[in-house]
Write a structure and sequence with these properties.
With about 300 residues, the chain is α+β, with helices and mostly antiparallel strands. The chain folds into two domains: about 260 residues, Creatine Kinase, Chain A, domain 2 (2-Layer Sandwich), CATH 3.30.590.10; about 35 residues. It has an eight-stranded antiparallel beta sheet, covered by helices on one side. Strands 6-7 form a two-stranded antiparallel ribbon. It is globular and about 65 Å long.
Length: about 300
């Protein structure tokens, strides 16, 4: 085992709960995530906050949310090595922007990695809750104890008409991003099919991004699909929009897989590619994370 911060050692020993097999539609949908953005009323947004204000907010979060997050899983990103920070990004517990920020910040998460919170990222609070497969009900339910605690212990910025106020106007309203991590190996082998699926998503007012969200690449045929609109509709409607599209996408991917395997020529090319990737994994003296994802 490589040398890591002792608080992060369990992350190397066990997969997160949302990666365990058995979730609904898990042959295509890897995981469900609910991200909720909240801010403290009267406090400048993180990009305008002073170092003292940021540090005070981190301390308040640590003290007031201790019942939800174990203290040893409350981590200051500035205290981590680059490798440890990369580990948090890989596990979807922290964003690259948070790690690269110079202001005081905090990352909190539970042992199962089903619930996490970033303090002083783009917003004062950004929670992330996860469930295996396609399961918005469970992912949303996981987030609620934290949301109730934030509402009780902090004066959150909320407009009577517009809803929750956020640093980025595109998040105003519910402050929610309901997203799915989908694995599309069959569609990804057909550029036309991939483009059709992505265009359909955008036509449904959904965002399509790489595995780690905005600004990231789609590695290993993994894509993140999420709602874009947070203003003018309620949480259930926003989750349903993503889920309805996902169910169509699941059917499309499964059908494409069957077509790929039933056609002798396509199957032969697939087997050839699998052998090439297997050789790379077994014989290469070293490979990058991107190569590993694309081969596995």
């Amino acid at each position: 085992m490589r040398n890591v911060d002792e608080r992060l050692e369990p992350l190397l020993e066990n997969p997160p709960a949302w990666l365990l097999p058995g979730g609904p539609e898990s042959d295509v949908v890897v995981a469900t995530r609910i991200r909720l953005a909240r801010n403290v009323s009267g406090l400048p947004f993180p990009h305008l906050i002073s170092a003292k204000q940021a540090a005070d907010l981190c301390e308040q979060a640590r003290e007031r949310l201790g019942g939800i997050f174990p203290d040893n899983l409350a981590i200051e990103p500035g205290s981590l090595s680059q490798a440890d920070g990369d580990l948090l990004v890989e596990r979807s517990l922290a964003s690259r922007d948070l790690l690269e920020s110079s202001r005081p910040a905090l990352v909190l998460f539970n042992a199962e990695e089903s619930l996490g919170l970033m303090v002083n990222e783009e917003d004062h609070f950004r929670s992330q809750s996860f469930a295996a497969g396609l399961n918005f009900d469970v992912a949303f339910k996981v987030s609620q104890p934290l949301m109730h605690s934030l509402s009780e212990r902090f004066n959150l910025a909320r407009h009577r008409r517009f809803g929750y106020l956020t640093a980025c106007p595109s998040n105003v309203g519910t402050g929610m991003r309901a997203s799915l991590l989908v694995h599309l190996p069959a569609l990804s082998r057909n550029n036309t099919a991939t483009q059709q699926a992505m265009q359909a998503a955008r036509g449904a007012k959904l965002a399509v991004r790489g595995v780690h969200g905005e600004g990231s690449r789609a590695l290993g045929h993994l894509f993140q699909i999420s709602n874009q609109l947070t203003l003018g509709s309620e949480v259930p409607a926003q989750m349903k929009l993503v889920e309805d599209f996902a169910r169509q996408l699941v059917s499309f991917e499964r059908r494409t897989r069957q077509e790929l395997l039933s056609d002798a020529s396509s199957r032969a090319v697939l087997i050839k590619d699998i052998k090439a990737h297997y050789r790379l994994l077994c014989e290469a003296p070293g490979i990058t994370s991107a190569q590993a994802l694309n081969s596995l």
